[in-house]
Amino acid sequence: RGVALILVLCLSGMRAETARYSVPEEAERGSFVANIAKDLGLTGEELLARQARLVPEGEKQYLELNQHTGDLVVREQMDREELCGQNEPCLVSFEVLLESPLQSFRAEVRLTDINDNSPAFLNKEIVLKIPESAMPGTRFLLESAYDPDVGNNSLQHYSISSSEYFHVYTQQRNDGGRYAELVLDRALDREQQAEVAFSITAVDGGTPPRSGTALIRVVVLDINDNIPVFTQTLYKVSVMENSSQDTIVTVVSASDLDAGTNGEIVYSIFQNSEENLQTFKINSETGQIRLKKPLDFEEKKTYEIDVQATDGGGLSTHCKVEVQVKDVNDNAPEVIITSLTSTLSEAAPPNTVVALFNVRDRDSGDNGRTTCELTGEQPFRITLLTADSYALVTAETLDREQVEEYSVTMRARDEGSPALSASKTLLVRLLDVNDNAPTFTQAIYTMALSENEPAGRTLGCLSATDPDAGENGRVRYALVLPPIGILAAASFVSVDAESGTVRSLRPLDYEKVRAFEVTVRAADCGSPPLSAQAVLRVMVRDENDNAPVLLHPAPDSSAAGELVPRWAPSGYLVAKVVAVDADAGQNAWLSYELAKATEPALFRVGLHSGEVRTARAVTERDAARQRLLVLVRDRGQPPRSATATLAVALVDDFSNAFHQLGHDPASGQQPQVAEEELLTTYLIASLCCVSSLFLLSILVLTASTLCKARVRAELPPPSPSCYADGDFASDRVGVGSTGTLSPAYRYEMCLTSGSGRSEFQFLRPILP
C-alpha cells in the first residue's frame, strides 16, 4: 500500500467541494449511508482499481467503504450525544482518496438525532416556599429538566397534575432551552392548607414522546410584606476561557425593604442546569459568582445562570446572568496524518506524494487560522489542497546513495498572539533503484605468474564497488570473451564470479606467451543490470627451464675439427663456440669456460664471447692433436649447461695438413686408432672424388660445345653454402635481435656443399 501511493500529484484532480450525507445516530453496523461510486461517477471496478479508501478526520473511523459496490456503510455505532453533546449539527468528516491519479474528495455525514433520551429532573422533589400573601398571577421559577437530545426530540413543554392553586407555564431561553414557571391561580391560606403537593412532568417532542416527572411541595409561609428586588434583571458579563478556578465572574445584588430576618437575603444558583452547577458557584451572602473550574470556549461559548435571592421570610426573586466565554489562543494546531508513504523510490519524480495531512486548530478567528511549513533544507515541499488539507510532495530528484533516510518535520503555526505551533516528524526511507554501475578500483590490473605453474594457482583479486543496495549492489565478475578467431587468452585464467579472485587454468610457457591481456566485466544483479570493464594484464615470469643450445659446433657432431699452425702466437683465434638460450634475462646470460683439454695450458676460452684462443705460443713439443671440452652455462637458479667438443690439429702448413698429420713424428704419442682409420677413409674418399671430378670435367668440356646452355642449367657449378647472420634463427628465436651473441662477434661459416663432416672449415669474422 505504501508503494502504491508513490504517484505524481495532480492538483487538478483535487476537489474542494464537500459531499454531505446523513445517517441516524445509533444506526446498526453495516447500515447503508450512501453510494460513493455513484456520486463520484465511478463504477465499483474503478473504485477497486484506484484503491479507493476513507481517511477519517479524527483518530477513530466510524464509517467504511465497500470497494466492490461503492457503498458507504456504518462501521461502528455512533452516539450523537457522546460525539457532539448539545452542538448541532453533529458532523463526522472524512476524505475519500483515489489513486492513479491521486484525487481527494471531502465528505461529511450528519448524525440525525433520535429520541433515545428522556427528560430528567436533577431533584425528584422540588420544595417551594410561598407566603400566603402572594397574589394570584405571581410566577415562581422552577427547576428545569435536562434532555440531551436536540431539536424536536429535546424537552418541549412542562405540565403539572391537577391543582386548584397553580398552573405551569413553559418559557424558552435564548439558547433554545425551555424552563418552567409556576403561576399562582388563587390566594393561599396557611390556616386552611399549610402545604400543597402536586407533580410536574417534562415532555419532549419525540415520536413517541418521552417524559420525566418530579414532585413539587409548596410550603405556605406566614406574611412577609416585601420580596427581594435585584438591581438588574439581566447581568451580561464576559470571561476569558483561560481564567483560572475561583475567578470572579460577576456580583449580583438584591435588596429587601423588610427589616430583621425578613430583610436578610440569601443568594443561590437556581437549579436549571447541572452543567451550570458544575461550572459556577455563588457566595450566598455577597452574591459574588466565581468559577468552579476553567472554561473552554471550544466546548461551550455561552452560559445562562438563574440566580435566586431569598429573604428570611421565604420570599424570593430571580435574575439572569449571561456569561460570554472569550476565546484565547490556548489550543496549538494539530497535524493529523491521513495518508503516509514511509518508503519512497529514489527514482520518484518531483511532485510525488509522500503524505497527506490535515491541520486543525480548535480556536476561532485569528487564533484558529494556521500556516504550515517544513523545517530545514530538504528535497520536499508542502502543497495546499483545501483550506486545511495539505500534501507533502517531493521538490526535486532523490538519490539514495547520498541520503538514505529523511526525517521530515512539518510545523503548523496559528496566527494568535502569542502564536502556538505544533510539529509532526515523518521518517521517509528511500528504496534503492539500480542507477549506479559498478566501479573498478583500477582501470588496469597487473598480475604476475611464473611459467610452468600448475593450474589453479591464485594470481590476485579484482575489486569493484557498487554504491547501490541489496541485489543492485551485489557485484559479479566475468571474463569478456574475445571475438572468434582471436587468440583465446581468456583460456589461460579464470575469475571467481563472487570474489573476483583470478586463478590460472593451465601452465604457461614463457617462451611462447610472455604476457597477455583479458577484459574483465563487473556487473551488478539489478534489473536491468549495469556493468563496467577493466583490463587484466598478466605478466609471465621466466623460469630457467631451457638449457643453452649449441649452434657451433653442431651438437649432433662428435667433434668439430680445427687447424692451428704451429707458428700460432699467443691469443691466436682457434674457434668460436656459439650458443643461445631460449630463456630471458639472467636465465639467458651465458658464460663459457674450458672444462677439459689435452693440454689445458695451451688454450683459453672467453668468458662471455666463447672464443677459443691460444693461451701461449704453440711449440714443437705440443701434441699434433688436441681435444677441448667447452662448458656453456647460464646464470639461472639452478643453472643449466651444455658442452661442446672441439678437435684441434696443430699443423706446419695448411696445404700439407693431412700429410703432416699422417706422418707426424709426434703421432706416436698414443694416437687414437679409430680417428686414424676414419681419417684414412676420408683421404681415400677424397682422392676418388678428385679423380671423378677430373674425368667428369673432361666429359663436360667435350659436351659443352654441343649443348652449353643445357649443361649449365642441369649441372650448376658447386657453390659454397654460407650461413649468414639471419640463418641462425630457429624455433622463433631471433639471434640477431634477442640472442646472446654480440654483433661484434658474429662470424661467417662456409662449408662445402653437401658435406656431412667437413675436413676443412674456415671461420671469417664479420666486422662491423
Automatic annotation (TrEMBL):
- The protein depicted here goes by the name PCDBG protein
| Gene giving rise to this polypeptide | Pcdhb16
Signal peptide (from-to): 1-16
What does this chain do? Potential calcium-dependent cell-adhesion protein. May be involved in the establishment and maintenance of specific neuronal connections in the brain.
Tell me the GO molecular function terms. calcium ion binding
Main site of residence?
A: membrane
One Pfam family linked to the record: Cadherin_C_2
Q: Which UniProt keywords apply?
A: Calcium, Cell adhesion, Cell membrane, Glycoprotein, Membrane, Repeat, Signal, Transmembrane, Transmembrane helix
Enumerate the Gene Ontology biological process terms.
homophilic cell adhesion via plasma membrane adhesion molecules
- Membrane topology annotation: Single-pass type I membrane protein
Q: Which PROSITE patterns match?
A: CADHERIN_1, CADHERIN_2
Domain (Cadherin) spans 15-121, 122-230, 231-335, 336-440, 441-550, 564-667
Gene Ontology annotations for the cellular component aspect, listed alphabetically: plasma membrane
